[in-house]
Structure formats: structure tokens, C-alpha cells
Specification:
alpha+beta; 434 Repressor (Amino-terminal Domain); about 30% helix
Length: about 325
């Protein structure tokens, strides 16, 4: 359809069938042939009494782009395909035949073969997502390192300070010339430490203990303790009955387990006794003591030593008879 380039008239005639707002315009306008198409669009807009914002509201094109089209300022506009669409929408807003205006725009506007630019100031960064991932990864790694350092500092603060270890001084070498092949003195750490004596316990001679163990057992299941006859001396916790008297006392000289069972196998007492600990109970019928190491358990009747056990299981009634 040829472009209408006549003068502006005062008639209400729609130049194309899709013009749905022709009735809202007081007059019909045509483009002036003088100047470029942008200046002609501006003159037509002003003739209709419309502002740049009115065109922007109708076309959904920014008012800045409307002004740039009218001034033919292509540096302020996006890529050419988008500008062509803006010009077509601008012509429709003025009631002009859009294809004729676009044809004139192609004839007057310079065509520059450049890379397609996004409309409306949209920027594209191909490495934006990669940079975001790197930043997130760096934050996570830093947080893990800080947490580990803080945790290690907390654990070190909670550890007790270790006391310095005092080591015995080595004996000075004998004065005189050194002889090759002469035996060296035994280092202090290789010497045998003295036997630990539990406070409150009577010292048992190993030879006497071996002699006592070699003696025949008494009818009550005890080694003969008449030669010793020592008194019961508490050297640790005494379990069982609290009041002393004619009860049976079992005192451990070495760590061993003690289980006191009643009729039918019911357990009345069970514990691992350490050296010096004891258990006191009545010499009642039906109670049986079960000891893992009988030789390490000394029996006291009326707080007087009667020897040591010889069997792992012994009725308390037999101990009272012995």
C-alpha cells in the first residue's frame, strides 16, 4: 500500500482495518515528507496532542526509546529488529499504516551489520553462574575451615595440662679408662620395682603361703590358719552385714570375684573384690560362696583368721563349723 505523505487533515479515517482506537483521535494525520521518518512521527504525535508517555503506554515501548526513534539516535536504541517493531507500534498508535512507515524507516535509517543486542538494557554474562558457584564453594570451604579450627581450639582448651614426667638420673659411669666389651650397668628403668604392699594388710610371707597351701585342707574347706590366728583388719570397703560379731568375714588379698548364692541358686551378693575389700555375712545354712581364686580369699570367724579357702564353692555353714 503506498505511503500517504499528504498534508495533515481533519478527517476521522482509519488507514488500516485493525485500528481499534481511531475513534479516540480527534483528527487523522499523515506523515510529512520533509526530514526523516522519526521527525515526521514526532510532528504527527504533536499534532494529535499526545506526549511521549502516551505513545509508551499504548505501545509498551519505553519513553526513552520513543524519543530516540524521533531523534534517530540509534546509539540509544537496541538492535535493529527490535527498533523496527517499535516503529511499527508507533505508527499504529498514531493511526498510520504501519507497513508504509516501516518501509520508509528501512529506506532512511542506516543498516549496520552488528551482533544482535538484547532489548531494554538486558545484559548476558556467560560466566555469571560459574562465578556464583565459585563464590558459594569458597564460602562453604571457609566455613568448614573456621569450624574445624574453632573445634580444635576448644578441644585443646578442655584437655588437662600434663604434668612433667620426672625420670631418674642415670648412674654416672665409673671413672677410669673405658674397656671395650665391659658390661654396662643396668639402667634404672630395667630394674624390678619393689612389691606393692596394700596399707592395712598383714604381710604374707611367700614361703609361709606356699607352706600353708601345701598343708591338707581342713574339713571346713580351709587351709590351716591356727598358726597365724591373725585378727581381721579392715583395709577397704566391707560389704554385707554391718555389725561385727560371730559372722563370717571373707577378705580378698588379691582381686577376685565373690558370689554368695542362696537356696535354689538365688544370688545375694556378687562383686569383684579388690585387695583389702571384704564381705561379712551370717554362717547360715543354705548360703554358698563362689570364689574364682580361693587361695586369695582369707576367712575370719569372729574376726579371727581361720585360713584361706581351698575350693571355688564352699557352704558358709561348713566355714562356721571349722
Amino acid at each position: 500500500m503506498p505511503l500517504d505523505t499528504g498534508d495533515i487533515t481533519e478527517e476521522r479515517i482509519a488507514p488500516y482495518a485493525d485500528d481499534q482506537i481511531a475513534a479516540l483521535r480527534p483528527i487523522r494525520v499523515v506523515l510529512d515528507e520533509t526530514g526523516h521518518v522519526g521527525a515526521a512521527l514526532r510532528a504527527a504525535r504533536q499534532r494529535l496532542g499526545m506526549a511521549e508517555d502516551d505513545i509508551a503506554q499504548f505501545t509498551r515501548v519505553r519513553a526513552a526509546y520513543v524519543a530516540a526513534i524521533e531523534a534517530f539516535d540509534f546509539d540509544a536504541l537496541p538492535a535493529r529488529p527490535y527498533v523496527v517493531g517499535y516503529v511499527r507500534a508507533y505508527a499504529m498508535a498514531l493511526g498510520l499504516e504501519p507497513e508504509g512507515v516501516v518501509t520508509r524507516f528501512h529506506a532512511e535509517a542506516p543498516s549496520v551489520d552488528v551482533k544482535l543486542r538484547p532489548p531494554g538494557g538486558v545484559s548476558y554474562d556467560a560466566f555469571a553462574s560459574i562465578r556464583r558457584l565459585l563464590v558459594v564453594g569458597a564460602v562453604v570451604v571457609t566455613a568448614v575451615i573456621v569450624w574445624n579450627v574453632a573445634r580444635r581450639t576448644e578441644l585443646r582448651a578442655s584437655e588437662p595440662s600434663s604434668a612433667p614426667v620426672l625420670r631418674p638420673a642415670r648412674a654416672a659411669p665409673a671413672a677410669g679408662p673405658a674397656q671395650i666389651g665391659a658390661p654396662l650397668p643396668t639402667p634404672p628403668e630395667a630394674t624390678t620395682p619393689p612389691v606393692y604392699q596394700t596399707p592395712g594388710l598383714t604381710t604374707v610371707d611367700p614361703a609361709a603361703a606356699s607352706t600353708a597351701s601345701a598343708r591338707p585342707s581342713t574339713p571346713g574347706g580351709l587351709t590351716d590358719g591356727a598358726a597365724g590366728g591373725g585378727r581381721f583388719t579392715p583395709a577397704g570397703v566391707v560389704y554385707g552385714a554391718a555389725a561385727p560379731g560371730g559372722d563370717v568375714v571373707l577378705q580378698a588379698h588379691k582381686s577376685t570375684s565373690l558370689i554368695v548364692r542362696g537356696p535354689g541358686g538365688a544370688v545375694y551378693f556378687a562383686r569383684l573384690l579388690t585387695p583389702g575389700q571384704a564381705w561379712r555375712g551370717p554362717a547360715a545354712a543354705g548360703l554358698t560362696v563362689d570364689v574364682a581364686a580361693p587361695a586369695s580369699m582369707e576367712v575370719f570367724i569372729g574376726d579371727v583368721s581361720r585360713g584361706r579357702l581351698t575350693q571355688t564353692q564352699t557352704p558358709l555353714a561348713r566355714l562356721g563349723e571349722s
